[in-house]
Design goal:
The complex is a heterodimer of chains A (99) and B (104).
Chain A (H helix, E strand, L loop, with lengths): L1 E9 L13 E7 L5 E10 L8 E6 L16 E6 L2 E4 L2 E5 L5
Parallel strand pairs in A: 3-5
Antiparallel strand pairs in A: 1-2, 1-4, 2-3, 4-5, 6-7
Chain B lengths: L1 E10 L2 E2 L8 E6 L11 E5 L11 E6 L16 E7 L2 E3 L2 E3 L9
Parallel strand pairs in B: 4-6
Antiparallel strand pairs in B: 1-3, 1-5, 3-4, 5-6, 7-8
The chains are: A mainly beta (99), B mainly beta (104).
Amino acid sequence: MLIAKVVGSVVASQKDDKLENLKLLVLQIHNHENAPKDQYVVAVDSVQAGVGDTVLYAAGSSARQTTLTDGKPCDAVVMAIVDSWDVNGTNVYEKWNEG
Amino acid sequence: MYLARVIGRVVASERYPGLEGVALQLVQPLAEDGTDQGDAHVAAVATSEISVGPGDFVNCEGGREAALVLPETYVPVDAAIIGFVEAVERHGELLRPAAEGARS
């Protein structure tokens, strides 16, 4: 899974029928030092994430292993909202300290 | 499967159902000579019997199969720690990567 920040959502009225009722989020990938990368991905939300949240997403066929995305054309799913993480014992990100 | 070094841990209380109680660790994948290769990512820890911390070397599984080692196997997980690595031998030479680890 990769760490990413939710930066937006996608509205698409013309799409494959299997994608009906899925919430699509635009994620910007962050590295383990919480620096944003110039890399974005659209992912299906499974945990009620919103813009500004730092999340984890699973990619590839693993993304289909939810009741929401089972058998659907989906290769990225948000599966956790991150509270904090540390690298070598030093906290890099703390949700409660974010503006 | 690939070799990686644990560099940190992730706390996430809001998760997809079925992932409750699964530890999440940040891992840095390694090349066969023990140097960093590629970007760090988050991996789920297969069982609580695997106790690892920063600096430890681990064996990871990537892709859809990663979920198969977890208590609940039908979950959106694409990387998992499946074992603790004590030593790695390459061409008869013992890599002792853990010695450079940051564990204090």
